[in-house]
Amino acid sequence: xxxxxxxxxxxxxxxxxxxxxxxxxxxxxxxxxxxxxxxxxxxxxxxxxxxxxxxxxxxxxxxxxxxxxxxxxxxxx
Length: 77
Description:
This protein is mostly helical.
């Protein structure tokens, strides 16, 4: 997601777009940091992934705290 981390083919097709339950998810939600990637209206490639140039318009924290990233981490680990 956004060109960093685990290759896309290792991430599930059904990543969650809602903030995860638990302490971290609650903290991110209360801090207003758990915002789905779709809400940024970024241009995407043919696979539906955000273009790297679009991702770079936002801070690392925006992308890292997105629920899709948490869902991908959960699926991986």
